[in-house]
User: Fold this.
Amino acid sequence: MIEVKSLTKNYGARRAVDSISFKAKNGEIVGFLGPNGAGKTTTMRILTGYLQPTDGEASVAGFDVVEDSLEVRRRVGYMPESVPLYDDMRVFDQLKFMADLHHLKNADERVMDALEMVGMQDRADGYIAKLSKGMRQRIGLAQALLHKPEVLILDEPTIGLDPAQVVEVRNLVQEIGKERTVLLSTHVLSEAQQLCDRVLIINKGKIIAEDSPSALGSRLAGAERVEVSVRGDANLLAEKIAEIDGAQDINVHNGGKLEFAFVAENDIRPQVARAIVESDFELLEMKSLGMSLEDVFLQLTREEKSDA
Amino acid sequence: MRNIWTLAKKEYKNYFNSPIAYIVAFVILLVLGIFFALNITYLTLNSFQAYGSSPDAGVVTGPFAFMLVLSLPALTMGLLADEKRMGTMELLMTAPLRDAELVIGKWLGAFLFILTVIAITLIFPLIMHFLVYPGIDGGQLFSAYLGIILVSASFLSIGVGISALFSNQIAAFFATLVSFIILWWLIGFPAQIMPSGVDVFRYLDMQAHFYNSLNVGVIKLSDIIYFLSLIALGLFIGTSAVETRRLQS
Assistant:
């Protein structure tokens, strides 16, 4: 359980986190989505007790992050963004050290269990300096899981991993997310879409949108995007489509493809089909693209900019 | 307590992976060895002269204290500065341990390492014990080594405190060295050139607390309190620095 109420953090004159509020329940995977410097890491650092907030309240697993910092830290598994580890230590020793700080019983077994969970048990005796970026990431995850925390906070858990590893980490997070609260940050939108039950889009320290990934996608003024493939010069066709009332945001791609958007209430697909036939283009394909989270994200952050 | 021990153990082991720690230990033992050999040779050559007193462990602990001033900054410079540079400070500060435990654990690790080096140097007075008749003064040996241990503990504590203020080891090294030089040599200066009215500097002079009493076999409560205060001060500086870090980044 994570509860955040009008949390604010200033770095000098700069406001990194600006009065944000949200909740995350048990069994929920919540994604923090936002551009660099949006305040994702700062928020996570406050929730893990690393930083103190300037204002506002936050509680994790029922404990206040300022008043009961130690209790919070006992219940949180945290993987910082750059996955800091002791390069001159062996993998096992690093995890054993952290296990000891958590006062775990059977620390040796717990370490091996955590390593097994991330598929790194054969590297227990290797030095951390020798690990690849992806392996470090997995050690970081094993470290966060060591003490079976109620709440897992992962800052960019899949950054720098190869596609196969990304899938592994995602499966792992999904598995964990069934019983615990997971808060993860990412700037990979597809990841948020696949993994998270709820997405918080954060920009300039403020939460600008909060919903399920699919709801966010369909939310934007009900806009729909359609891609059309024709044989012939798509530029000529673009001119024709531009004449149709309601066609927006027309982009021409190579190979006779173009994309356009329209508002759902005013479906212009029949008019477009007619225009194609009347102009002697051969229609090869017309498909709906939907609205990706990426579009939502860009649009929302752009709106913020124009507001400012 | 458990966390302090966990950290101290890790730090102690870490020194045995670190070239700097080996260099520090090597230089201390080498220089002390040379001093010892020269002293023994000198004493042997002059043995026919009637000496008022027999040689004691001061032959070893005198130069040892001096070596501590120059070498201990290298042991403490990385203790917290390096954690910050590597980013592992974030792991420690989000682990369930108090800021004071973190700083004390680091200090204890360094202290245990230097205790190991100190234990090795006991070989010099031991050799001397068999060379002179009727053996060296055990009480003075105890007092002088207690002095060395207290001086080390104080320096290490100041060093940990300063290391917490930096994220660059080299900067931490020089800041620590300068503060040691001030404490050991400079702070007593006003008391030496002025006849009176500057007693506070006389009390702050670290050298005097060692050479004038502990090293010659006099154990005084005021000296012990002086060193314990220094230890507390260093650990307090370190803890405050870590706490301040939480308020801003």
User: Anything to note?
Assistant: Chain A has eleven helices and 14 strands.
